[in-house]
Amino acid sequence: MHQEPTIATEGLLKQFHTRKRLVTAVSDVSLQVAPGETFGLIGPDGAGKTTTTRVILGLLRRTGGRSSVLGYDSMKEPFAIRERVGYIAQQFALPPELTVMENMRFFAQVHGVSRREQQRRIPDLLEFAGLSRFTGRPAGKLSGGMKKKLALACSMVHEPRVLLLDEPTLGVDPVSRREFWNLLASLRAEKRLTVFFCTPYMDEAERCHRIGLMYQGRLVASDTPAAIKARLPGRLLEFTPSDRQRAAPVVDGLEGVLEVQSYGSMLHVLVDDSNRRRGEIETALAAQAITCQGMREIEPRMEEAFIWLIRRQSRDALAPDHPADRRVP
User: Structure pTM?
Assistant: First the structure.
């Protein structure tokens, strides 16, 4: 039986008028999030992720297209949406002078949760978030990771069916990030939540059932993480050249090299045949007095797939007028 999507957009467009020009922040974004799914909108700063999230929630008016949550139109029924959605904004503001317990009660009252229901829900949420021992601590005195957990607990106090999270782990240390995602995964499974979040961290794509890669206001690709990484052609070689700046253009000009990406002092090189091209790369670099260390074949990550898709999109845009600029078919 076909299930209606929990979140849906079709041809979503959002433009802002400035004094000098019309700025398109989101252009022709169409996506669907299934019930119980974790969907990540992933891309760099300025890609349009936060704007898309706010339009879906009804906090910003869309310029064109459609957007809905649980069948409610984002523009016509925003309050019905907010009653059923938990939302953590990018700059989620916990009143710092209020204690953990006072914050929980404050957000419960904002959402109209009765005192009786508060007594039932709040202890369970605090226990779940590992905050039961800190109920009397002011929110301003919590660590960054604990603040994120408290924000998550506050967003769940009215028992929403959907969670929308805008860069929820931004500025949090790796250990706290992992704890947050483990907590969220447990909540999603126990409460049968649909989770929609946006993030600049490519590694968080692996936490999702499906993702949307966003760049310059457009949805570049939307699929499972594995399917998107599988779009990369050929094989991926990783190595550290003695002179990365000189090595990159040398390797980029070789036969069978589809793309060259830099990661710190390393190069990631997409080739048609790793066994054949490995020796050719080493020989070409040696001819320029450049050595390479630790050359090996690696599995593609989301970073490589994202960069390749963006560059392919740019090459496709140039292709009619500049066919020579398109190196990857």
Answer: 0.87
In CATH terms, the superfamily for domain 7-225 is P-loop containing nucleotide triphosphate hydrolases (3.40.50.300)
Residue pair 10/66 in contact (Cβ under 8 Å)? The answer is yes
Cα–Cα–Cα angle for 218, 230, 293, rounded to 5 degrees: 105
Rounded Cα distance between 18 and 50, Å, is 19
CA atoms within 13 A on the CB side of 156: 27
Q: Residue 110: which residues within 8 A CB-CB, separation 6 or more?
A: none
Which residues is 297 bridged to in the sheet?
A: 237
**Of the candidate ranges 43-52, 117-126, 173-182, 254-263, the one whose mean pLDDT is the lowest:** 173-182
Residue 311, SS3 per DSSP: helix
**What is the average per-residue pLDDT within 238-260?**
95
**Residue 113 scores a pLDDT above 50:** yes
pLDDT at 319 (0 to 100):
57
> What average pLDDT does this structure show over 25-37?
96
Dihedral in degrees, nearest 10, Cα atoms 188, 218, 71, 83: 60
User: What number is the average pLDDT over the span 235-248?
Assistant: 95
pLDDT score of 323 more than 70: no
Residue 91 pLDDT more than 80?
Answer: no
**b or e along 99-135 (b: 16 or more beta carbons within 10 Å of the residue's beta carbon)?**
bbbebbbebbeeeebeeeeeeebbeebbebbebeebe
CATH of domain 231-325: 3.30.70.100
Identify residue 11 by its one-letter amino acid code. G
Which of these, 231, 241, 247, 217, lies nearest to 302 by C-alpha position? Answer: 231
What is the C-alpha separation between 69 and 81, in angstroms, rounded? 6
Token reading at 115:
């005192």
151 and 94 Cβ atoms separated by less than 8 Å: yes
